[in-house]
Design brief:
By secondary structure, the chain is of the alpha/beta class. The protein has eleven helices and twelve strands.
Length: about 290
């Protein structure tokens, strides 16, 4: 008795005719007939009535009894395949450079420790590329500071963190710092979010930064230079302080916050692997008093 034979039997039960059943399985009607006859021969009797001039095939008494077992077999096989899938699952996470470098590294490590059966694939993409990758089923979860207005995606708010002013450890700025007195020729500018750019333009009217970057390795290099400064999320500041290459400065006026969310396909947001990853993220966020979970 073969899986192919049982599959053909169930297809005929669902579609009532051999032609439609064969079409649903992408095989010829003669192949379907051969498989059914082999199954009936093994079981010792016909499973369907084959009446002259009648296209629809109806079950015999033996066929009805076998149908119940075949349905149970199909359900059991589906459960077995899901177990295999879970044990060989891959979670593909995309993040933009700053969160991936300074916050998600700890989440990746925790996730791998608590979910050893799931392989983790880490990607680095901005919002447009990430949404396209999710649509093509090449990414499962993507982090962003932007907004997605599309019913095909689920967007989940994750955390909010304040921005802070940092400078090199060798700088001579007196605290608290008045932002209007800072020189943009010394700024290392990163456009952290869509909301950050207009705030920056309003705060520094008529001036433009000399350096604009998007890669965190470049920030690490430039911020070491004396009198360089940057406005960064607190998670980035903490990472640079731990490396001993930057220090935080108090400011007279408050700085904005950065809000981060994650997006996934609308029908995948409750996937166990995604929920497990977000749970690890919440645990890590809980270890940072200045970062607020949303």
């Amino acid at each position: 008795m073969t899986h192919a034979g049982i599959e053909c039997f169930l297809a005929v039960c669902r579609y009532k005719t051999g032609s439609r059943a064969a079409e649903s399985l992408y095989i010829t009607q003669s192949s379907l007939s051969t498989r059914l006859k082999a199954l009936e021969k093994e079981l010792g009797g016909p499973l369907f009535y084959r009446r002259q001039g009648c296209r629809e095939m109806t079950l015999t008494a033996a066929g009805r009894e076998f149908y119940d077992l075949a349905v149970q077999y199909e359900a059991l096989l589906d459960r077995m395949q899901k177990i295999c899938h879970n044990h060989n699952q891959i979670l593909r996470v995309s993040s933009f450079n700053s969160i991936g470098t300074y916050l998600l590294t700890a989440v990746y490590e925790r996730f791998m420790q608590t979910n050893p059966q799931i392989r983790l694939e880490i990607q680095d993409m901005e919002l447009d590329a990430a949404t396209h990758s999710i649509q093509e089923d090449k990414t499962d979860l993507a982090f962003t500071c932007g907004r997605v207005k599309d019913s095909h995606f689920a967007q989940i708010p994750v955390f909010s963190e304040p921005m802070v002013l940092i400078t090199s450890v060798a700088s001579e700025y007196a605290e608290p710092v008045e932002l209007s007195q800072l020189s943009l020729s010394d700024e290392v500018y990163i456009e952290w979010s869509n909301a950050f750019a207009p705030w920056h333009q309003q705060m520094f009217i008529g001036e433009k930064p000399q350096i604009r970057i998007s890669i965190m390795a470049h920030l690490q290099k430039f911020i070491e230079q004396k009198q360089r400064w940057a406005i960064v999320p607190v998670s980035v500041a903490e990472g640079l302080e731990q490396q001993g290459i930057a220090r935080r400065l108090q400011t007279v006026s408050p700085l904005p916050c950065r809000e981060v969310s994650c997006i996934t396909a609308a029908d995948c947001q409750n996937e166990p692997a995604i929920e497990a990853f977000l749970e690890c993220l919440r645990d890590v966020i809980g270890e940072h008093p200045q970062i607020t979970a949303l």
